[in-house]
Amino acid sequence: MADGALKGQTAVVTGGAGAIGGAIAAALAKDGAAVVIMGRKAESLEKMKAKILAQTPGARIECSPGDGMKPEDFIKAADMAVKIANRLDIVVATVGGGGFKPLLMQDVDGFRAELDYNIISSFIAIRYGATRMKNGGSIVCISSTAAGMPFPWLSAYCTAKGGLEHLVRTAADELSSLKIRVNAIRPGLTKSDSAAGMFENPDVLAHFLQQVPAGRGGEPEDIAQGVRYLAGPESSWTTGVSFAVDGGHELRRNPDLTEMVRHMYGAETLAKLQRGDWPDFPK
């Protein structure tokens, strides 16, 4: 991947104030793209803009405060990108996440909220980004290794990311006639705001790293380089795929984090769940 390969192109990155979103925006800007970063907090966006400009002086970075779950906010960011050069070439949807919770403690509203957060946020970016990509382009979503690897106590997140990847495949097929490619990256455990607790807990981190052949956790820049490849001309014959940037984690399995969940919800509560002694458990 060469510097300047994206010169003249414009991009939108949702979740652009986050560690991964910011690293992605920086990678795109380094190679010449004008980038609109979108996020809910204007102050955080401005800090990320300053950080990127310190790395790449002269880069074109614009901030568009807004919620990635709201179509009108994404449309505002996408239209801002179009105004830069009368085009939109790259959309990166990073909004998503989830938390550990036993399946039998989930309720419909909580489960649905996690599906929305991971799938609907990407649907909005694909749906309203594609209609502005008059010259074709690339849409990249952030999935997870959890999409294809069962992870006990993480049922909603696994389901959401699996659904996201089906959306990616279907969208890639439907949008191919418009010369729009749609792909996804599956990060492994990567340093970010949402994963900070994992990295700060030596026992949890050790359990993860036992399942990672590369022997380390991911950095935001690792994910950014995967997205940069899918966004650029080097991947012009790649669409409808979700591939892992995970240090080889998918070669093995997810760690057993039962002890962490036991600490989160209490030993007695987890014991009741595992033996079916629970008020709402079907008799």
What would your notes on this structure say?
The chain is α/β, with parallel strands linked by helices and 283 residues long. It has a single domain, classed as Rossmann fold (3-Layer(aba) Sandwich). Helix content is 45%, strand content 13%. The protein is built from ten helices and seven strands. A seven-stranded parallel beta sheet has the order 3-2-1-4-5-6-7, sandwiched between helices. Helix 1 crosses helix 8 and helix 9 packs across helix 10. The mean pLDDT is 96.
The name of the CATH superfamily reads NAD(P)-binding Rossmann-like Domain
- Low-pLDDT stretches: none
Number of domains: 1
CATH architecture: 3-Layer(aba) Sandwich
* Biggest β-sheet: strands ordered side by side in the sheet: 3-2-1-4-5-6-7
Query: Which structural class do you get from the secondary structure elements?
Result: alpha/beta
Q: In this structure, how is the largest beta sheet organized?
A: 7 strands, parallel
Radius of gyration: 19 Å
| Strand content bin | 5-15%
> Secondary-structure element order, as H and E?
EHEHEHEHEHEHHHEHH
Record field, number of beta strands: 7
Average pLDDT confidence is: 96
Please give the CATH class: Alpha Beta
Number of helices: 10
What's the CATH topology name? Rossmann fold
Shape: globular
How far apart are the first and last residues' alpha carbons, in Å?
A: 59 Å
- Helix share, percent: 40-55%
